[in-house]
Specification:
mainly alpha; elongated
Length: 99
């Protein structure tokens, strides 16, 4: 049987047709990691979390087909965005009351 070529599309990468085998993966050099972090505005931090919380994130991430750390970043970003909106509304209400 002749192997068929898979078109290199974003969908093919996302659904794994172009490979997700750990045997073909290797870590990027430190310089490349630093460039990626800088271009995405990422900063490494250290945080202690409950083991159960981390396991829950891993389960959710597995179900959603994403990594647990990007899922945590997304949850934190959503929280911050919601808090800023609440703060802006509270500030607007305070200014309206003072008038």
């Amino acid at each position: 049987m002749k192997a068929r070529k898979i078109e290199s599309t974003p969908e093919a990468w996302e659904d794994g047709r172009l490979g997700r085998d750990a045997a073909h993966a290797k870590a990027a050099p430190q310089e490349m990691q630093a460039l990626v972090d800088e271009s995405l505005g990422l900063q490494m931090i250290s945080i202690r979390l409950q083991k159960d919380l981390i396991e829950d994130y891993k389960k959710i991430a597995d179900f959603r087909g994403v990594g647990y750390q990007p899922l945590m970043r997304d949850a934190l970003k959503r929280f911050v965005d919601a808090e800023f909106k609440k703060m802006a509304l509270e500030y607007a209400n305070l200014k309206a009351v003072k008038k």
